[in-house]
Amino acid sequence: MGKRAVVVNFTIVRTIGFALVVIGFFMPVVRVLVNRTGFQLANGLIDNNIVMGVLAYAVFVTAVIGLVIGVLMMMSRRTKISAGTGWIVLLVCIASGLIVFFAGLNSPSLQNGGIFILIGWIVALVGQVLARGK
Fold first, then answer.
1. Residue 2, by phi and psi: left (phi above 0), alpha (psi -120 to 50) or beta?
2. Helix locations, the chain, DSSP H
């Protein structure tokens, strides 16, 4: 018996990463006085600083866009999305989240949802890099 080559579709890996970010946004993300989901955090930030609130929502929106793009690419081989689009969506998602975390929050404590988001960013980044390397 010969060995079979294992083919990994890195679009799936990237899509799983974006799915983790979306799931993490629904979970308690940070502890600022009390545990807050991503939506509660974004609503609270909008009341104080609209830019930080919009950036918090940008994490969720860009993750959903990345998830939709990934599903479309997996469903049809004819769906062509430029590599630049994938990078832009991923980098906006990561950058907006990091800006909110470091500039918009005062001494936050990362909760399970925040860890899911971090893992999702890492998985999506690895999938994006490896998908373009083949």
1. beta
2. 10-26, 38-48, 50-75, 83-99, 112-133
> Given this model, what pLDDT does residue 93 score?
96
Tell me the pLDDT tens digit for each residue of 47-83.
Answer: 888 999 999 999 999 999 999 998 888 887 776 777 7
* Predicted pLDDT of residue 109: 77
In a domain, residue 101? The reply is yes
Task: State which amino acid sits at residue 52.
Answer: M
> What is the domain range of residue 70?
10-133
- 81's CB contacts (< 8 A; 6+ apart) are 69, 72, 73
Nearest CA to 67 out of 127, 17, 10, 132 is that of 17
Q: Does any domain span residue 32? A: yes
CA 61, CA 17: separation in Å to the nearest integer? Answer: 14
Q: What is the mean pLDDT of residues 117-132?
A: 91
Give ∠ CA 104-109-111 in degrees, rounded to 5: 110
Share of the chain above pLDDT 70, in %: 89
Q: How far is the C-alpha of 25 from the C-alpha of 40, rounded, in Å? A: 10
